[in-house]
């Protein structure tokens, strides 16, 4: 079954938020989902210790020697496997990228984040050279402002990346209180109280939109492999 990882050498780039948003949305829609929490800070494991009703399995005991077997075992059981990687360009990250069907590279709309995202793209290219295989990846913006409040620098960075033929999701994970509330309350977007979280309906709509685009990327990738 499809494996999606989130990679970026920069800590705090939004990897965990991206992974948790996608995983909980798919689980809410009825899919079986496993998350491998390879971030030393264990944000997903901490979230799982809460009271979410979603039956998402979280695996946290992974090392660079076990990551591949853990992914393979999870993929044999769940419809979707997500891997939240550490914020370094490590051997563990490389092994997860090589095994994944799609690598997402989260970044905020800043020049520093764009530079660090370029390092993640470089890591993927190194893996391609080492293995002789092409890997499916895409950058995904997060913590950006929704239209019509999108900042000029965010638009410029996105345009520059696309002009350089770097894959970028059309959908962004916008700056929403609800994404932070997921981790604070240890539940999914779909379990938060609308009366206590501003803009929750907008965050849910945003999550569904970006999940649909990721699913389409996976469908296209699998269609190419089957051809």
TrEMBL record:
<protein>
    <submittedName>
        <fullName>Chromosome partitioning protein</fullName>
    </submittedName>
</protein>
<dbReference type="InterPro" id="IPR050678">
    <property type="entry name" value="DNA_Partitioning_ATPase"/>
</dbReference>
<dbReference type="Pfam" id="PF07015">
    <property type="entry name" value="VirC1"/>
</dbReference>
<dbReference type="InterPro" id="IPR009744">
    <property type="entry name" value="VirC1"/>
</dbReference>
<dbReference type="InterPro" id="IPR027417">
    <property type="entry name" value="P-loop_NTPase"/>
</dbReference>
């Amino acid at each position: 079954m499809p494996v999606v990882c989130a990679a970026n050498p920069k800590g705090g780039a939004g990897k965990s938020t991206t992974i948790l948003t996608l995983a909980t949305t798919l689980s809410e829609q009825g899919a079986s989902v496993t998350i491998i929490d390879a971030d030393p800070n264990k944000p997903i494991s901490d979230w799982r210790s809460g009271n979410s009703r979603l039956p998402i399995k979280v695996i946290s005991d992974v090392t660079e020697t076990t990551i591949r077997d853990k992914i393979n075992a999870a993929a044999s059981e769940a419809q979707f496997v997500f891997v939240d990687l550490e914020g370094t360009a490590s051997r563990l990250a490389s092994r997860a990228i090589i095994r994944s069907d799609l690598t997402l590279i989260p970044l905020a709309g800043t020049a520093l984040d764009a530079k660090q995202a370029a390092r993640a793209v470089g890591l993927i290219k190194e893996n391609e050279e080492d293995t002789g295989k092409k890997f499916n990846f895409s950058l995904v913006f997060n913590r950006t402002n929704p239209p019509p409040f999108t900042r000029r620098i965010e638009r410029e960075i996105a345009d520059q990346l696309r002009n350089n033929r770097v894959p970028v999701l059309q959908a962004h994970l916008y700056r929403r209180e609800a994404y932070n509330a997921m981790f604070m309350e240890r539940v999914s977007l779909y379990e938060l109280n609308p009366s206590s979280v501003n803009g929750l309906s907008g965050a849910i709509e945003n999550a569904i939109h970006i999940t649909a685009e990721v699913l389409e990327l996976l469908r296209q990738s699998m269609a190419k492999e089957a051809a």
